[in-house]
């Protein structure tokens, strides 16, 4: 009789790791680790290598990655990753040639030649190479103007060239790599904001043109194509630029007073509300027309919070509670989009006033934390936007850590890090056990990003420990066992326990085996990142994928950098890790195992 294959009964099931998309990511990670091990070994012994070896090594890697990209042309992601490595090796080859032969070339010449050599690699669609080209070409332009002193003598010429290059890059991206349009829209907004600051300083019409031209042209383009989100983002960016001008124009008329801040908050909110009203007329069926209004609400909320915190002192607590009450009523009365954004604005500034002035009066972080827990629960009950809830969760978590620091100061209690890690792993473990419930709610993105933030903060703290900045906090004895072994083991056992039926497939035990290995190394968080990444890949959560990839790179760097081994053995350990990941991917993708699980290749 054939064994019945268990179906995934939990969102973070180990069966995610046998999906083709996840296996492909494992293959990319394995190849990347092998490549890094070679590069690391060469970098560690670079000055001891003969010059001809230094010269040819990047070119050999370039040729190897190019040939492998041809070999794996059918695997799109792998092929694009290899092409991106080829693009990086082009730049490294140029840098080595300049170093060995002492060419004396300016930096902009290196980046310009690198950008030109990247162009032929775009004969096949490759988002990584194009993104690299965008960065390198921008650097070439900047260094040209800086090293030729034109950046000082003719800054407007640089801004004109910057606008032209960014515009051409966005046009090309819209045709071939539309997923990059949001990144380039952000660049357009940054150019507009920077140009507005320069316009305020010099009153030059050229700076005003730099504020307007790209934002207006692409807003009109997206509007004609009925791309509503892109139109709203660009218009919101343009409104943000002109809000800076409003600040400047009103500064001389509004004195530094409570009334002045109140009028400024109303002006800013009214300005963004007018922009949103215009967008609603132009895009009547769009839910993105309120983006400028939301941006204005947050800016006005910050100004009102400054008003409450600066001038009204103890009365701010009462005013903050009144603001929160008004916001509660507005949200529950099923208001228009305008009033809902106003409610968010009032809620944020009222919350800031209540928390800060209560702490000043009572000097009790524990009370502030309890108040924040209550506000977070109110936010959930009010079904606020996921970003608002994320901020509430992060603030509650940060205040919880602050309470632990207050109760267990650095100089008197060496178990502080144990309590903090206990808090972090409690959140991560409860999130794992209750994932089926919160992933089905409107706040799935909030909780996911909360977990990613915890893992990122843990990585930063590990980095501080590693470089001796917070060496006095390093756990010792039983605390070290709790932090690095017991808490991760509880999470791993919970992972195995809720998926016990699925481990009837013997090869799946390789997945917790990886977790056990990482516990032994003291970097179990990498396993949690891999589980979250598998879920994000299968469910096509692009934002989470990008954040988790960056976080994984950081954690892997921490792991290998902190190994107490020589350069040679570190390189060997990285190489062996790559082989093990490839072996795991091979076992999980084997036809026999795939046929057992019924996964289509």
Automatic annotation (TrEMBL):
<feature type="transmembrane region" description="Helical">
    <location>
        <begin position="315"/>
        <end position="331"/>
    </location>
</feature>
<feature type="transmembrane region" description="Helical">
    <location>
        <begin position="21"/>
        <end position="43"/>
    </location>
</feature>
<feature type="transmembrane region" description="Helical">
    <location>
        <begin position="384"/>
        <end position="404"/>
    </location>
</feature>
<feature type="transmembrane region" description="Helical">
    <location>
        <begin position="128"/>
        <end position="145"/>
    </location>
</feature>
<keyword id="KW-0472">Membrane</keyword>
<protein>
    <recommendedName>
        <fullName>DUF2157 domain-containing protein</fullName>
    </recommendedName>
</protein>
<feature type="transmembrane region" description="Helical">
    <location>
        <begin position="543"/>
        <end position="561"/>
    </location>
</feature>
<feature type="transmembrane region" description="Helical">
    <location>
        <begin position="182"/>
        <end position="200"/>
    </location>
</feature>
<feature type="transmembrane region" description="Helical">
    <location>
        <begin position="81"/>
        <end position="101"/>
    </location>
</feature>
<feature type="transmembrane region" description="Helical">
    <location>
        <begin position="290"/>
        <end position="309"/>
    </location>
</feature>
<feature type="transmembrane region" description="Helical">
    <location>
        <begin position="259"/>
        <end position="283"/>
    </location>
</feature>
<dbReference type="Pfam" id="PF09925">
    <property type="entry name" value="DUF2157"/>
</dbReference>
<feature type="transmembrane region" description="Helical">
    <location>
        <begin position="482"/>
        <end position="503"/>
    </location>
</feature>
<feature type="transmembrane region" description="Helical">
    <location>
        <begin position="509"/>
        <end position="536"/>
    </location>
</feature>
<feature type="transmembrane region" description="Helical">
    <location>
        <begin position="343"/>
        <end position="372"/>
    </location>
</feature>
<feature type="transmembrane region" description="Helical">
    <location>
        <begin position="231"/>
        <end position="247"/>
    </location>
</feature>
<feature type="transmembrane region" description="Helical">
    <location>
        <begin position="55"/>
        <end position="74"/>
    </location>
</feature>
<keyword id="KW-0812">Transmembrane</keyword>
<feature type="transmembrane region" description="Helical">
    <location>
        <begin position="447"/>
        <end position="470"/>
    </location>
</feature>
<feature type="transmembrane region" description="Helical">
    <location>
        <begin position="416"/>
        <end position="435"/>
    </location>
</feature>
<feature type="transmembrane region" description="Helical">
    <location>
        <begin position="206"/>
        <end position="224"/>
    </location>
</feature>
<keyword id="KW-1133">Transmembrane helix</keyword>
<dbReference type="InterPro" id="IPR018677">
    <property type="entry name" value="DUF2157"/>
</dbReference>
<feature type="transmembrane region" description="Helical">
    <location>
        <begin position="567"/>
        <end position="588"/>
    </location>
</feature>
<feature type="domain" description="DUF2157">
    <location>
        <begin position="23"/>
        <end position="123"/>
    </location>
</feature>
């Amino acid at each position: 009789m054939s064994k019945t294959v268990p179906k995934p009964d939990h969102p973070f099931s180990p069966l995610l790791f046998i999906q083709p998309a996840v296996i492909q990511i494992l293959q990319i990670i394995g190849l990347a680790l092998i490549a890094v091990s070679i590069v690391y070994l060469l970098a560690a012994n670079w000055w001891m290598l003969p010059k001809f070896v230094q010269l040819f090594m990047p070119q050999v890697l370039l040729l190897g990655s190019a040939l492998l990209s041809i070999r794996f042309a059918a695997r799109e992601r792998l092929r694009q990753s290899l092409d991106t490595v080829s693009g990086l090796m082009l730049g490294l080859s140029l840098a080595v040639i300049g170093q060995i032969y002492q060419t004396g070339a300016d930096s902009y010449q290196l980046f310009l030649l690198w950008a030109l050599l990247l162009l032929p690699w775009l004969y096949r669609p490759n988002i990584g190479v194009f993104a690299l080209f965008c960065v390198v070409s921008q650097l070439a332009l900047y260094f040209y103007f800086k090293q030729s002193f034109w950046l000082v003598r003719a800054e407007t010429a640089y801004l004109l060239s910057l606008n032209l290059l960014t515009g051409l890059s966005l046009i090309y991206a819209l045709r071939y790599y539309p997923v990059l349009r949001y990144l380039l829209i952000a660049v357009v907004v940054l150019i507009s904001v920077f140009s507005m600051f320069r316009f305020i300083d010099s009153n030059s019409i050229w700076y005003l043109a730099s504020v307007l031209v790209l934002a207006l042209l692409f807003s009109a383009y997206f509007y004609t194509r009925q791309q509503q989100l892109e139109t709203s983002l660009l218009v919101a960016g343009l409104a943000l630029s002109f809000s800076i001008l409003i600040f400047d124009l009103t500064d001389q008329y509004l004195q530094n007073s409570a009334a002045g801040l109140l009028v400024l908050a109303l002006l800013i909110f009214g300005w963004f509300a007018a922009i949103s009203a215009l967008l609603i007329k132009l895009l009547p069926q769009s839910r993105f027309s309120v983006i400028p209004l939301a941006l204005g609400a947050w800016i006005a909320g910050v100004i009102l919070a400054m008003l409450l915190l600066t001038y009204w002192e103890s009365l701010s607590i009462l005013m903050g509670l009144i603001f929160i009450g008004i916001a509660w009523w507005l949200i529950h009365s099923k208001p228009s989009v305008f009033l809902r954004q106003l409610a968010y604005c009032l809620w944020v500034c009222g919350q800031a006033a209540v928390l800060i002035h209560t702490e000043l009066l009572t000097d009790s972080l524990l009370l502030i934390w309890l108040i924040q827990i209550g506000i977070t629960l109110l936010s959930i009950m009010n079904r606020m936007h996921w970003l608002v809830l994320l901020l509430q969760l992060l603030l509650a978590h940060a205040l919880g850590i602050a309470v632990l620091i207050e109760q267990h100061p650095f100089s008197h209690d060496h178990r502080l890090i144990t309590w903090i890690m206990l808090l972090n792993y409690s959140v991560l473990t409860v999130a794992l056990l209750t994932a089926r419930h919160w992933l089905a709610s409107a706040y799935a993105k909030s909780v996911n990003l909360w977990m990613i933030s915890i893992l990122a903060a843990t990585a930063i703290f590990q980095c501080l420990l590693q470089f001796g900045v917070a060496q006095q906090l390093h756990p010792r004895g039983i605390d070290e066992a709790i932090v690095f072994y017991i808490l991760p083991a509880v999470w791993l056992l919970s992972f195995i326990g809720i998926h016990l039926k699925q481990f009837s497939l013997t090869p799946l035990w390789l997945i917790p085996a990886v977790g056990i290995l990482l516990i032994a190394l003291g970097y179990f968080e990498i396993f949690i990142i891999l589980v979250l990444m598998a879920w994000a890949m299968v469910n096509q959560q692009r934002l989470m994928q990008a954040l988790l990839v960056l976080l994984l790179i950081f954690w892997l760097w921490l792991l290998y950098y902190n190994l107490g081994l020589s350069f040679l053995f570190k390189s060997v350990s990285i190489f062996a890790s790559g082989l093990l990941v490839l072996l795991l991917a091979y076992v999980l993708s084997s036809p026999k195992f795939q046929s057992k699980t019924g996964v289509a290749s």
